[in-house]
Write a structure and sequence with these properties.
The chain is of the alpha/beta class. It has three domains: 117 residues, Rossmann fold (3-Layer(aba) Sandwich), CATH 3.40.50; 44 residues; 226 residues, PPM-type phosphatase domain (Phosphatase 2c, domain 1), CATH 3.60.40. It has a five-stranded parallel β-sheet, sandwiched between helices. α1 links the parallel β1 and β2. The longest helix has 33 residues.
């Protein structure tokens, strides 16, 4: 899939220590000029052995690693970095002239987070570095917050009142970080009305959604639900959001994207963790919609002409469970006035005091009611979440709730 994500200002990353590894001094010189001009602190190594020594001693924040080198190649260097407690968390971006799928998958399986193709494009190098430096710092901050919370719990008996205040502040910080991974506002596209919301079960959770306006005529919507709750799910969400953002840049079909994501997560996540994931690609001019799904509730399609709600049914294992899973997509056309609603299972599985579930039929009925009333995407989102709240009554929310509404305006 092609497209560009707008490059952000990297001034907050000035001084970050970067290790460049390449057996070709010319390549090092080119990268050195680009990165020093952007304010980074640069280390360099011309072999895999030297790179391992420097990384262990200097602990850079990010490594740009050439693949084809004499002696230890880039894949082996990356594997050894990931086996060392000192260097395991350092993000590695491969630098390669081979952009074939097999080579890219091998790099991700070795532990890399991204790749840059030769010849270099300065803007691309800086954009990819900034993305992964920020994700790495965010991940480190989440881990640190989790450690602080655990330490705070151990001191509960000595300072209970102080603990409560501190806990709320720390969790709010983690909440703000996670919410920062998701859109602050909906994209403004001609003829398209879209709204999304994520309501964590606790301060932080395992749900995530994002929009990717790849071209003026193509919009991609993604929604993910990671197993677990709170910090157990929040850290994999941070990692997964970065992987999706990186992988969506690679040319290919929606089916191929799902397969790549699945292989990466199968190698990366532990056996108890997996990701339910839905993604849809919309041709804005024609209204043609292609949908892939791996474990999320079926999206609901409201037809303005028939005033019926149908489920876009497609089944597959969640990402990360089986490396050989083949993913398929379904296609539909959105007529003017049609809506599509994507949601996590926090809506379907919301319970009331009688232990009844909100369920699929009530969800479809709420979608139909809002659409028949001509509600905008944002209003329909409010109506659906409000219906869940009225049904649950005084029963506390039991899971993360995430929903995205797509409306092709008439």
């Amino acid at each position: 899939m092609n497209g560009k994500i707008m490059e952000q200002n990297g001034s907050d990353l000035a001084g970050a220590k970067i290790l460049i590894v390449d057996d070709n001094p010319t390549n090092i010189k080119v990268l050195l000029g680009v990165l020093e001009a952007a304010g980074y602190s640069i280390l360099a190594a011309t072999s895999g052995e030297k790179a391992l020594n420097i990384a262990s001693r200097a602990e850079p924040e990010l490594i740009l690693l050439d693949v084809m080198m004499p002696g230890l190649d880039g894949y082996e260097v990356c594997r050894r970095l990931k086996q060392d407690d000192v260097t395991r968390s350092i993000p590695v971006i491969f630098v390669t002239a081979n952009d074939q799928d097999e080579g890219l998958v091998a790099g991700f399986e070795a532990g890399g987070v991204d790749y840059i193709t030769k010849p270099f494009r300065s803007a691309e190098v800086l954009m990819r570095m900034q993305t992964h430096l920020r994700l790495s710092r965010l991940n480190q901050e989440l881990v640190r917050k989790n450690q602080e919370l655990e330490e705070t719990h151990r001191r509960l008996e000595d300072s209970q009142s102080q603990l409560i205040d501190s806990l709320e502040k720390e969790l709010q910080t983690a909440h703000d970080m996670q919410m920062g991974l998701m859109p602050k506002e909906s994209p403004r596209l001609e003829g398209i009305d879209i709204a999304g919301r994520c309501i964590p079960f606790n301060h932080v959770g395992g749900d995530f959604f994002q929009y990717f306006p790849l071209t003026p005529n193509r919009l991609v919507i993604s929604l993910a639900d990671v197993t677990g709750h709170a910090m157990e799910a929040a850290i994999p969400v941070v990692m997964f959001s970065g992987i999706v953002e990186s992988q969506i840049e690679i040319e290919g079909t929606l089916e191929e994207l799902f397969c790549r994501l699945n292989r990466i997560l199968h190698k990366t996540l532990d056996e108890r963790t997996y990701v339910c994931f839905a993604m849809a690609e919309l041709d804005i001019t024609s209204g043609f919609l292609r949908v892939g799904n791996s474990g999320c509730p079926y999206p609901y399609h409201y037809s303005a002409r028939s005033r019926e709600v149908v489920e876009l049914q497609i089944d597959a294992y969640p990402l990360g469970i089986r490396s050989e899973t083949v993913y398929q997509t379904i296609e539909t056309e959105l007529a003017p006035g049609d809506r599509v609603v994507f949601c996590s299972d926090g809506i379907i599985e919301a319970a009331n005091s009688a232990q009844e579930l909100f369920g699929f039929e009530r969800t479809a009925d709420a979608v139909r009611e809002g659409c028949d009333a001509g509600q905008s995407a944002s209003a329909l989102l409010d109506h659906l979440i409000g219906s869940v709240g009225e049904f649950a009554g005084d029963v506390p929310q039991g899971d993360d709730i995430t929903c995205v509404v797509l409306h092709r305006e008439g």
